[in-house]
Amino acid sequence: MNNRQLFLQHVAQTSDAPLALEMKEAKGMYIYGVDGKEYLDMIAGISVCNVGHCHPDVVKAIQGQAASYMHLIVYGEFIQSPQVAYATYLSNLLPNPLNCVYFTNSGSEATEGAMKLAKRYTGRHEIIAFKNSYHGSTQGSLSIMGDEYWRNAYRPLLPGIHHLDYNAFEALEAINHKTACVIAESVQAEAGVKAPSKDWMQALRKRCDETGTLLILDEIQCGFGRNGTLWAFEQYGIVPDVLLLGKALGAGMPMGAFIADKEIMWSLTNQPVLGHITTFGGHPVACAAGLAGAKALIEGKYIDAVNSKKELLLKHLKHPAIKDIRAVGLMVAVEFESFNLNKKVIDQCIADGLITDWFLFAANCLRLVPPLIISEDEIMKACSIITKAIDKVLTP
Ligand code: PMP
């Protein structure tokens, strides 16, 4: 059996149509197949590799830390300098009072930790989330996922959860003195890039303040510069009580985090029971990689160029078959009339050397979330491949 057959036989699949392309290596904006074929990466591992694949600073940091130590003990027992360095760096980039970082293995685990934190801190158990949201795949984060069809497959779910309409003012009245936390994506990603209005976000913040409810913002996919500002919440002029990060946080290594004020975070440390335990969360190698990636992103001033790159992409990505394009920074959904057409365009793009896919709750939308280091020439190249791919699939 070849590797493809062994993969399909022995590696559990998440869908019945895995791409199953075998890749050899990846550098910067490109991924290379074992057959030597070059692919322009327009999804960055789904918003993970902001500074591209195998950034030399990230590779060096991983090698250096792996040679010093990898795993010593479960989370928080020893002082591990890579965790201290990255948490301090993040705290300095964040507004007050987001000054205390709990590192996890994944975005889903960050969501779990934040919900537990809200319960301990407020003594309440009701949680409000939004329709069409995605916060992870563990049982708790599935319970708050905003897709009923999906949730139904995993009942019984966590009790006390309510789903409101995103970006709807009247929905906010459901937040009351029983609500432990509201959890919302700063921009809904898997819904197909849906940004709320600034007024709504401010009303949400106000309602949480009035009711003593913690506001948790999930920036696992939309944060870390992708929006054109370092944190998406900056665009709304608000600060959450708890921020969720993941994906780009580890610059390619597995990592998530929930971040809050030290005083709030302390409620996880208080007796009688420990708050959250993780063996590998905050892995020293992931912290070293994440810090190197974050420094490369900020010192390279890539975030400053996100919005002009977005404009260039919108200017050149034009085709009559495109029904709508929603873009928040370099997080772009290209909408077609059906999943069927979108899937054909995606397959054609891959055949023509460009990696893209669709969104979980917006399968008729093609996803463009490239590494933020993408050049103007590469944007033009991507637009040309995509528009030609649409022509090819529409030509009888
Ligand atoms: N929240 C959002 C907004 C996400 O996009 C994701 C991942 N797609 C998660 C949470 C879960 O992260 P992970 O897959 O690392 O558990």
TrEMBL record:
Belongs to the class-III pyridoxal-phosphate-dependent aminotransferase family. Pfam families: Aminotran_3. Keywords: Aminotransferase, Pyridoxal phosphate, Transferase. InterPro entries: Aminotrans_3, Aminotrans_3_PPA_site, Class-III_PLP-dep_AT, PyrdxlP-dep_Trfase, PyrdxlP-dep_Trfase_major, PyrdxlP-dep_Trfase_small. It comes from Chitinophaga caeni. This is Aspartate aminotransferase family protein. SUPFAM superfamilies: PLP-dependent transferases (SSF53383). GO terms for molecular function: identical protein binding; pyridoxal phosphate binding; transaminase activity. Gene3D superfamilies: Aspartate Aminotransferase, domain 1 (3.90.1150.10), Type I PLP-dependent aspartate aminotransferase-like (Major domain) (3.40.640.10). Its cofactor is pyridoxal 5'-phosphate. The lineage of its organism: Bacteria, Pseudomonadati, Bacteroidota, Chitinophagia, Chitinophagales.
